[in-house]
Amino acid sequence: MATQKAQVRLDEIGFKATIGAFLGVAIALAVGRTYIRIILTHRITVDDGFFFLAVVTLIAGTTTLYVDVPYLFIQQNVDPSTTVITPAFIQFLLRSLKIQSATDVLLSVTLFSVKYSFLFFFHGLLRRVRWLTIWWWCVLVMMVPLSIIFMCCIFIVCPYFDERVLIKCSTPAAVRRENDILRASAFMDIFTDVLLISIPVALLWRVRIPLQRKLMLGGILSLSIFTMIVSIVRIAGADLPNGMVDSAWVNFWLQIEAAVAVIVISISAYRSLFVVAKSSHGHHGGGGKSP
0.70 exceeded by the pTM? Predict the structure, then answer.
């Protein structure tokens, strides 16, 4: 039953093609953002540091996930009631578990690196707005412990990487704990997104800023809401009919969410391209009028 559902929702070729496509788009836009920031605007700030970390961990996390895809789908097709547990099969499971743990941590770092990049980007827009600056610090204080917990969730679910995983992480109680922690991690993900969104919302409605900047913030807000929807999809389809967690589904949507997050933060920098172009046009126009 579980095997049949996994095959209907995701297949191995489609899985690889989709995560590869999202990674390709994210890298292309990230290269464009890097060019704009370094070559055109000659500016590197704190938010860029978190952005670079997000890109590196996205590439690494997608690579480890790509390596683990065959193992994920073999696990989906294993019937525990009929499978003979041999030493070779145990080593297979342990290897896959280690790769999954690395993937989960790397993509979690990607997600929160993007969140911190946005947070420090917004900080530059809050000059002389004292009450929003105070709220910015409140958001930072709340995000730090939540991000640490989120990145450690995989180890809270199952802290073992040896044969004990078959005994202590496969009981009904352990499965319930895994489902509960998965839901809690999704809540932390969405909650921190809401905290971040509260800053541009306040800027849009409570502070007088130029229309161009309002449109930029509105676009970021819309794309951020999309990443929240992806997070909801990831948790909504995680349960298999037998109560187990569909690891292929969860990892697939985690990578998609991380890639979309990098795409969103990359697009936000393209406003600088138009600013540079406008300044350059104004400079040449002014030069034509000089005697």
Answer: yes
